[in-house]
Protein 1
Amino acid sequence: MMGIAWELIVFLTYLAAAIAATSLSLWLATNGRARGPAIKASAAALGFAALWAFFVAGFGRAEPITHTALVTSNLAWLWMLYRLFGHDDRDKRLGPIRPVVASLAFIEMTQLAIIGTRLQSQAQPEAEALIVQIVLTLRLLWCIGALVLVHNLFAGASQQARLALRWPSAALGAIFLYDLNFYTIAYLGSDTPDLLEDFRALALLVVTTLLAVGFLRNKSELRFRPSRSFAFQSFSLLLIGAYLVVMVVLAQGLAYAGSDYGKILQTGFVLLASVVALTVMSSKRLRGWLRVTLSKNLFQHRYDYRSEWLRFTDTIGRAGPQAPPLLERAVQAVADITDSPSGLLLTPREEGGLALAARWQWPNIDVPALAFDEAGARFFEESQFIIDLDDIRRGDHEGIPPAACPPWLFTHEQSWALVPLLHYEKLVGVVLLARPPLTRRLDWEDFDLLRVVGRQLASYLAEQSSQDALGDAQRFDEFNRRIAFVMHDIKNLASQLSLLAGNAEKHADKPEFRADMILTLRNSTDKLQGLLARLGRYGSHTDGAIEPVPLRVMLRDIAARYHTQPGSITLIAEDDLMVRADPEALEQALVHLVQNAIEAVDDGTPVQLRLVPQENGALIEIVDSGEGMSPEFIRTRLFKPFHSSKQGGFGIGAFEARELVRAMGGRLDVESREGLGTRFAIFLPGDQRLDLLQQMQDRKKEVA
């Protein structure tokens, strides 16, 4: 009775495995939403595996048609494995793989000839036993070769490609590892283990489940990138050989436990070995440890410098609309060397110190606006020191000032290393690397390679900065040419209006009309002449005379100028503060900022113009309640010429205002929140501070 129940359970298990594999195969073949590598080959492999399971359930294991279906299923798994290597036509570069695949295919094809031989020798027990031994030997060779290919498929892939390969590799590894255990026990015991053969349907169910999870979740592309393949393949063969030795010893030991207990122990050992193998294959930490251990003991150097350099140039030289910006690629190029999953790039600010310039796969770390102050940036520039932050955490910070390790670095546990980028002994940036899956201390080889890569990256970044500056200069030249045309047209118009005013004085008949026309024309002429004078002074920020300026009077005049516009000005100026400045330049800067504030407000809310007393100077604030600006826009575009958010704008208003204020020894700051508004603050120094700045500039001119 128990035997009949067990046979029914085995039959239902094979039937369930066949149905599951058929369902997934049809879904992969017909559903366009399936994502993953080698979709068609995987669908075919699952279909042939399902056919084999149907034949086992319907005809039994010993029938020739079932053996033929098993051979076909194995060939389909092999084709799927090859397509995983050759996804997206990359098989053209996989010459060493094809002979192995062809050899395994030949080994499996010989099984078809053996099936015919067994039909003719059924009445000869000695010949049947010899054929069984040959079949098992070939099956062992097949399993070993297939496992080696699975190992090389996963170990030789890039870090990004492993996300796509982990589930198919785990599925293939599971089926081949199970067969390796099954045929090893059969070979050593000279008999087929019935219990393990009954459980082969469960192995197919596990493979189907792994593939289903992978195809439902996987959206990554493959990129096969072998490195030091000979050593790693040899090591994988050594591991498989050691595994077979252990299997032989255990099988001989289990033989003494009796047939009943022996089957249970064999089954438990197979399950345990499968779990261990899948755990090792899927663990990044264990793979990292294995790679580091092999590099340390088998090679003179940790890094394969040729492959590292090829990967570096490939990352930096990547182009096209889909490629990340150069700053992000620079971070990735450094992070790939240490297997860091993410990183940041900090670059010098115009005001001094370092600020965040780019992120690579690290969106959740908070970086202040001033990431490193001037002292921290000076330390990296002078010392060229690569900092291991774990050493700082352990208290080993000898020779490293606090400015080089600000507190925000240690609020995130993934912060790991700081790599300076220097070009001609000038700091171009600092890369912050995240902690790799296998944490280790940086040694001299890491420092040497990172220092060389840092200098090379710095040259690329400096070249891009020079190209941007050249582009800005060319655009300035184009802008100046346009201004020359505008000035020419305005001159002609002013001359015509002046002539018209002169003729009107002579020929107008009505005295009232004549007087009104003369007044209007003269006002227009004055306005055009004033515009012409301002355009003629464009760009000469330091030529104006520095003199005492009553700020409240100037702000009142500017507010009166805009009283007819929808966004009126609210003036808050209790004290009449005096500063020394260039009146025309200061007025021009204020007009730029007030005009931008009025245009930013679309609901009629007044723009506030405040005058605040300061120690050693005065502060002028222009505050609006418009849409505001993002930190990214303020950092990268607000003060960049020719980057305008207005249709047809030149994008020089904020840049011009800042340069005018700086030329007078002042400072322009901005604070903004999206949806709340913007505050521009102009600080102008008092007499004593301005005199000191003037003396310093005079000394520089004398030295020059």
Protein 2
Amino acid sequence: MVLQQDPSHDVPYTVPRPIETAAEKTIPHLRKTKTSSQLIVNGKPFLMLAGELHNSSLSDPAYMRIVWPNMKAANINTLLGSITWEMIEPVEGHFNFSFLDQILLDAREFDMKIVLLWFGSFKNALSTYAPGWVKRDVKRFPRVHALEAGGVMKTLELVSPFCEEGSKADGKAFAALMRHLKEFDSDHQTVIMVQVENETGLLGDSRDRSRLANQKFKQPVPTEVISHLQSQYDEEVHSLFRKRFPEFKNLTAGEATWEDAFGKGVDADEMFMADAFSRYVGQVAAAGKAEYPIPLYTNVWLNFDDPSVLDLQGLPIVVGGGAKAGIYPSGGGVPHTMDVWKLNAPALDFIAPDLYFHDYEEVCKQYRHQNQPLFIPEQRRDERGARRVWLAYGTYLGIGCSPFGIDSLEASVSPITKHYGLLNSVSSIVLEAQVNRPEDIMGFFFDEVSETKVEKPWVRSFGEFELTIDRAFVFGKPGPGAGMIIHQGDGKFLLIGWGFQVTFKSTNPKSTFTGILYSEEKTVSAEGKLHTARVMNGDETRSGSFYIMPNEDPDYGGFPIAVTIPSRTMIAECTAYSIEEEEEDF
């Protein structure tokens, strides 16, 4: 047990620390918690306040020297950037890491952590980042062939996932990269994770129609795949797999073909490709993990079953991913194929969703499958996207979120700057709650008011109180908001964020009254310690009715009395209480 100071009351509390091996202490790793995992960097828990660069940004150290200070000003502590197979191994067997070394040296100057994106064989369902010597040699590295409308066979710039030479060559290059990172960076831990490939799968058809693929499609489903899915079907297999394949548990193992197991058509094709792609990526990941076992993951281009759940805001439905395998990458790690990926690619520590237009909370739930950690490697960089990170970090214990294209957005106008600034100031408190009290932390957001969408409050019970979180009350036009609540025990709650208000209700059936006992605005020091600022009882709680975390500039709607004070620190502590009365007390 490690004795620490409570960040709000200077009272010692104990934090359990699992025993770690010497090797784990010296490199970035994931430490298991009660219900998830936490990222450990330089021996300490680390909350990634991340952003993903444009695809080509990390290839030029000179360009990045313009980027670093802007990213620092945006309160970003981790950047995701691609490193490509074609740049690392332009000639087979000859590796070049000089530009990467300079990038890492410059990142250290700005105390910036890096997540490398390995664009090897697959990037967005193509092989455009593979070296020229791979692209030209179709005998050694055969391509995927897709069937177009009218029965026309088309050759794609996509290495077939059935190509053993491809996974072997990609794995060799990835191993060289990881070996170099261990030698060059393990003492500094600049690189804290690596993404293996990017949005893997096949676009334009539901499966590979090449001669090699057709032969394998006729073969039985590997026994270990059927056995694994059936053995975990009732409890461990993803709910969306069970929904899609309700009779799979009753399948007779043995000589079942893909169509026997998953039905004729697109579903069988997709599961066939998921098995192939996951084995390929799993072999590449294993080769790198053997050299330097820092956290590895892969990311996913999402699908949708019901387009009504998409948050398109007038954009065409095509941006939402796709409802049919082949419109979205067939064989990628979408929820209903995720268990095949986890079986075939155990060197991946988790699978992560690229989350732009889907229901944010629903996807967070889906990718916490089997208590794997949540990381959002790509998401929107606008205000709408920035609000949602509170839900990921709070309710779903996210280790990081990463708005895409972050380097072409100035920190002075970026919504990320404000959100990450507040999160950074309370990161030690958030990390402590994530690991020790996951049931006591939640995040939420409120978008701009919609005339067509019925808004529901966020409701959650903590201990003896039920909390209802609504949009902050104003006389004029209600504004957006976002934040987090952390239950500290005994009816005491830490409120972080703006644009919301909290009402407390006792869950004790004998309670006759619930109110606010005491509330304070808090400031936070550079060390993450909370200190009391203004006492906020009385009018600032609407006489004990609820506690309001207002926006920075409340809209009074022309009302002449400024009854709502502007938000200042965006951090408060509020203690709720309830009473029980006997009949004679009335």
Protein 3
Amino acid sequence: MPSPRPRVTAPLPLRSLPRSPLALCLLAALAPALAQAQQTVPDGSDATDLQGVEVTAQRLDGYAVRNSATATRLNLSPRETPQSISVITREQMDDFGLDDANAVLATATGVNVEKIETDRTYYSARGFDVTNFQMDGLGLPFTNGGQEGDLDTAVYERIEVLRGANGLLSSTGNPSATVNFVRKRPTREFQGTAGLSLGSWNRRRLDLDLSGPLNEAGSLRGRAVAAYQDGDSYLDRYALDKRVFAGALEADLGPGTLLTVGFSQQRNRPTAPMWGALPLYYSDGSATDYDVSTNPSVPWSYWNTTDTRAYAELSQALGGDWTLRAALNYRELEGGGDLFYVYGTPDRATGLGLFSYPSNFNSTEYESLADLYASGGFELGGRRHELMLGLNSARNQSNQLSWYSADIGTPLPPMEQWTGAYPRPSFDAYANGADFLTRRDSLYASARWNLSDRLKLITGANHTRIESSGQSYGTAHRYRADRTTPYLGAVYDLDANLSLYASYARIFNPQTEVDVNHRVLEPVQGRHTELGLKGEWFEQRLNASLALFRVEQDNTAEYAGYDTQTLSSYYRGIDATSTGFELEVTGRVAPGWQLAAGYTQLRIEDADGDDARTYVPRRTLRLSTTYDIAAIEGLSVGAQLRWQDEIHRDQGAQDTAGRPIVTRQPSYALLGLMARYRFNEKFSASLNLDNVTDRKYINSLYWAQGYYGAPRNAMLSLDYRF
């Protein structure tokens, strides 16, 4: 069973979310700190000589992007990048109503969204866990292995998924994927959007996005984004209220000098969230089959999170094409809740055999990160090459405290009869918690060598020192590691449209999980190799790729059990190898026709050659497409398909006859449909349908418990642009 200790976060002193009409007022309030910038750029001067300031990618209209720096921090096209990279653009998110990170990543090639609870999610790619979300190319690994709480997408322009190892820019190597969220930035021209959405289960959502110059010269610009959403759910008793706000200022401080500062906050207030999920089998080994709406939580349960971020970035042109960039990021993640966990194995005939496990907790997490790097070109051997040099320093402080009640183990009625009727206990029996500090300091570099008109070589390395001190639920959280991870990639142009590529990277990643003896597991180590073919057509509006990959990873933490004395989970390290291939096509196939499609097939084996991590699907297909109907001006239609093959999980238990219990989720497909009508250039209406066939399925077998995905549902949206 999953760890009974919650790993979440708690409320900030700042309790109220700014109302959307005050969005630009907030920007104006911040403006005095940058008042000096207001006259820096004279009227009529060219203020576009800092185009290279974009942290990750330049967007084209549609589902394609022109450039990305997520892999190497060198501004390369997808074809020039010797790794697989997928980008979900703002247009694709808007087309299909992808309002949170889970919805977005469920459409990304090769990514599996492991929804183990309503408000905690894990992710995997190429057979292994995704452990790093970045904002504009900067970020720290998840403290507890997954995303806690809903992560709204209103404040992001696009989301990039770099598959394969990315130790070059993420301090430590991970063979799965790095997810980079690219923030919306202020614009030089005034623009704005407002949206209202109404959907199934009383879901309501408001969106506002305002951007533009804040002075006559245009040297000071601002942007404000706000979103409000609330509503019930297909799950019994569950509801979510979330509020999102982000503000950013951008100032031209002088010729070649650009300063950006920003702030964002997201507050999630769920009611009756899951902590753990449903039992998946009876004591006789047969599978449970509850109603889709079944929720083991109780009405008084909550899991509040408040995620506050602030950042500052400075870019300085140094002459030639060299640029120096500095960034400071700060994050404060707070939360708390009264949670209710159900454990046990029910009897098939009576449904009895389930027990209560309530808990109260508070958690606070502080992250700070500073990054400085320079990039530009240099001449050598009669050719122009590119170089990037940087350093990075990060700190993460985590404090958690869990309180438990004396009524743990109270027998519960059958889940088929469960109404959530359980009194809130006093959480005063005993407590446990965590308090640890992690430091990461890195030096990194990459170079793109122009060996010939057709052949480019990319080399790089990252040297990182990681230290951790403190304790986590009674176990020492102490380790120190010092390691250099290399990176090597090559791209060879076959012709004007096609390129061959190859890349190699080492893997090194310290772990926080402990074994049965409460010792921290040794760091993950291994290697990642990728070989592929990429193409681009129609002035980079259509991209395609074929990738073959092999990942060897040793000592990966895998859940092994739960210690009732220390109230904590323990793990074992396994060696595994993942091999497979991916196909992807993204962009404009024809005028009015946008497509994002990807297919992944892989095999995961342990050191003995047996199947490993069988809860990861071996084959997945992702497809999103829209088409403008020429016969009806203003009408667009589209479809989205998400398919995966069969998965299963050996539950590590036996039925009454002594046979191993295995939970299986057959292959399934989820179909979504959309239609949008543009009444004019400013006003449009959209209808989105999801799970049109009303397929019943278990979200994930990542844990021994699970719950069902959403049935057929709809969303109607009205959008106004000005």
Protein 4
Amino acid sequence: MAWALSIALLSPATVLADNAAPAGEDKVALPEVVVKGAAVNEPTTEKSGAYSTRKSASATGLDMSLRETPQSVSVVTRAKMDDFRQLSANDVLANTTGVSVEKVETDRTYYMARGFDIINFQYDGIGLPFTSGLLYGDIDTAIYDRVDIVRGANGLMSSTGNPSATVNFIRKRPVYQFQASSGLTLGSWNTRRLDADVSGALNEAGTVAGRLVVAKQAGDSYLDRYSPGKTVVYGVIEANLGDATLLTVGHSHQKDDVTGGMWGALPLYYTDGSPTNYKTSASTAADWSNAQTRNERSFIELSHQLNEDWQMKSTVSRNRSAWDSKLFYVYGTPDRTTGLGLYSYPSLYNSVNTQTMFDLSASGKFTLAGRKHDLSVGANWSKSNMNDISHYGVGIGTALPDISNWTGNYPEPAFNASIDGSDYEDKRTTIFIASRFNLADEFKLIAGANRTKAETKGNSYGVSSAKNASKTTPYLGLVYDLTPYVSTYASHTEIFNPQSEIDASGKTLDPVKGKGDELGVKAELFERKLNLSAAVFKIRQENAAEQAGYIGAKAYYRGIDATSQGFEFDASGELAKGWNLSAGYTQLSLKGSDDKDVKTYVPRKLFRLSTTYQLPFLPQAKVGGSLNWQSDIFRDEGSGNIIRQGSYAVLNLMARYDVNPKLSIALNLNNVSDQKYLTSLYWSQAYYAAPRNGSVTVNWKY
């Protein structure tokens, strides 16, 4: 489809549609096409240059402004991603209010918000929780218009998960007037990247449009032996089947090729309890370590405008993710004097996860008691199959030299010592309803519910994955307009997540329950170009599985509770002409059922700031910076061994100059002060973040 689209965009019909008629000839006026069906799609942010958006349906499925949404929502626009070269989901989320990115390895990542794991990533509002609770590989941002982050429980749109956040990636869509752009980036450690994006009408009538986005990146890294690369291709076609019906078909492909990636990371303390302090470039990867990740995402959407007030939309999605790797894990605790005490654990790992999803929804307005109200109803069904296998290498437990100056020289073993793996299937069926009642000019009540049945069957590494649960989760919000631009709100949301762990009696634990209560105020200032919000929240997760002991060789679990409460500020948009801002501050406490601190690796305070300014005396130039700060964290390993990471701030700078309306040059400098810090304490191992680095990008657009 990508090849067909690229050819079609260069077809004579497209050229004729965009070129002016030669002198002396009459210009051909194309018929006007009114695309009513597109109204159900999310508003775009590209070309706006804005750091915010007016509306988002990511929290409720209802078409509402951020001020009218009774929940904390942050939006990362195309402009912000471009300004700060946020090329991956990690880059985006590491600069988002209230979110911490836990990079436990080079190619596997956890995400946290309000003290709990984020496991719900969606694409245009549709998705399933992570199969393993974390992300394998990378998500490139080249194909997305914006990213919405809804913090707290999100039972209406996610059905199952944690009361942390839902991340919704909004794809780029075709435009009907021809446009094209490309970019070439050269960066530290021999990093090279090429981007291209072309879109336009595919027929003379202007009723069919297509878009093709490609990106290719390669290079080395600050880490010894680590060289990441990726290829991204996205094609989408949009066809107006009539005045009220819109068909969209799209497919994205991303392949990550990595050599020298780490499985696990560096040991963090010596046998005497003192902390290790390796070089920033230190790696435990063997010189033969490698991994390939492939993600294929296909979707078909059909939207239809029933009348002036009502529209329907159906979506079928098919995702396939595969991971093939040869990995080298290092375990043990080194001696401070000799560096010895570490051992090898090689493995060959393959996995395939396929997901099929179907979603049908209708939204519109109805009249009750003389007032118009909004309603959204829908149903969705999904099935996910996970198959993976581990081939363990010969030589597990071989003693290793001091890794301080290790070159990764370890003979590649035969991977036939033993095998193990998983084979299980998840099914979910959901129906939901949400409505916004206009109780009065100033009062809006948002009420809804989600009924979900979740079932899993199969086994994972010799343990049954079987679980079966059904639950109705409510959503309730109240918004009061103090002025046409300032609102206060209160909301209660819930979510649940089935689990397969068993207790001491052999009974499967009940599902995890998550509840969130939030009270806040939101404002739209400066002609609605700046969105402000402040909120206090209390999140409770009940019955999460925690290992409690063993009966023979079989582990059993107990359900524990945890409560997160705190406050949050968020700002995004335009402060003045040419001055954009995105900022947020989060502070929370996280306690267990015994009122003691839990998850001490989660920072209790986070500050995010990104700002750019177009110079009034040189309007072709834009300068900016971002600052990310987090408070100190620690991890108690027992026996008096406590791992600590002090608070730190990371400063990034950018500058761009428009040579002419079509050509621009951008400079980005990251970690300006060359801070040395650990990427995470989520696990008992970690590695160091990238030191000072930079890039230069040349962009061309038509």
